Amino acid sequence: MADLERRPDAEPGGTGADSGTELGGGTEPGAGSGAGGGPGTPTRNGPIFLVGCQRSGTTMLRLVLDSHSRVSCGPETRFLTDMRRIVGSDWERLARFGFTREDWLRRIADFFGGIHADYAHSRGKTRWADKTPLYALSIDFLAEVFPDAQFVHVIRDGRDVVVSHRKRFGYWSAVKCVVKWPRYIHTARAAGARLPAERYLELRYEDTVTDPEKAMRVLFEFLGEPWEAGVLDYQGKPHDVAGKYTVEADRRRAAARTDAAIYGSRVGTYRRELDPFLRVLVRIFSGSTLRELGYR
Q1: C-alpha R_g of the chain
Q2: E-strand spans in 13-149?
Q3: What is the Cα 73 distance to its own chain's centre?
Q4: Is the N or the C terminus of the chain less surrounded, counting Cβ atoms within 10 Å?
């Protein structure tokens, strides 16, 4: 299986907007996005979007990010997908207001970034991140709204994702997942290939739970944030998460017989928990994507 990947092969530079432009409340004046400073000095300050198919480990990564002294990553938002439609397929109707599309994008950035920035500041943080798996399908739009944003795409073995959907949402959700998972993968990777390497990172779930420190060091180096060992012990820090998540996380840790926040007992669960019918569906609809990603 491939290691941590910066991005799919693509032409350098991509087609993203100028990363020096700042929109919305997610950045601070004078905060650069290039390299510089010592190992403990932040080198970026733009928004962070954590995306990936549901049940791929995005919540775990959200809590890791939220445990950093500078980064705030709150609850899912989801509504930017509606904004994408409004300035996209619904644009003809919206244009009657007389504002340009750029005006609308700026207002969206101001509103959304302002909410996140205020939330971050209320928690003593200076940089915000958003974890909404659904935004894997809207990276192009988000990159346009926030030209200095970075995207972290969490990828997990689709067979384990199907198993997790069945356990969390029921059998029909697992059936639909065999089609949904490759769609998320292909859409996000295609968008990532159009971005500069410093704006898009692929992070394998399996790598994060096998060697958490190595994987998280790669993540925070990509984000331009100084390394803090405490991010690996996120369960000991306060987070705005639903009570049911805490209960479920405690149950899973008990089943895995570990006190660690990050553990790998759920890797390869499809081998014992994926029934014959779902195996056939995975082979038909997800097989080529699994092979493309190096999953055997």
Answers
A1: 19
A2: 48-51, 71-73, 127-131
A3: 11
A4: C
> Tokens standing for 289?
């994507």
Per-residue pLDDT of the chain (296 residues; tens, 9 = 90+): 444 554 554 433 333 333 332 323 333 333 333 444 456 788 899 999 999 999 999 999 999 999 999 999 999 999 999 999 989 888 888 899 999 999 999 999 999 999 999 999 999 999 999 999 999 999 999 999 999 999 999 999 999 999 999 999 999 999 999 999 999 999 999 999 999 999 999 999 999 999 999 999 999 999 999 999 999 987 777 677 665 555 565 566 555 556 666 767 789 999 999 999 999 999 999 999 999 999 99
As its CATH architecture, domain 42-292 has 3-Layer(aba) Sandwich (3.40)
Tokens standing for 66?
């939220």
Q: Which residue has the tokens 């290939």?
A: 193
Instruction: Express the helix, strand and coil content of the chain in percent, nearest 5 each.
Output: 55, 10, 40
CA within 13 Å, CB half, 64 = 27
Q: Which residue has the tokens 């059998």?
A: 171
Instruction: Write the DSSP assignment of 172-200 as a string of letters.
Output: HHHHHHHHHHHHHHHHHHHHHHTS-GGGE
Helix (H, G, I), strand (E, B) or coil at 160: helix
Residue 271 C-alpha from the chain's centroid: 26
Strands (E), 19-138: 48-51, 71-73, 127-131
Give the position of tokens 């979007």. 49
Q: How far apart are CA 253 and CA 262, in angstroms?
A: 9
- Spatial separation of the C-alpha atoms in residues 245 and 241, rounded to whole Å: 7
In whole angstroms, what is the distance from residue 186 CA to residue 188 CA? Answer: 6
User: Residue for token digits 């029909």?
Assistant: 172
Cα separation, 80 vs 91, whole angstroms: 15
Say which amino acid occupies 176: K
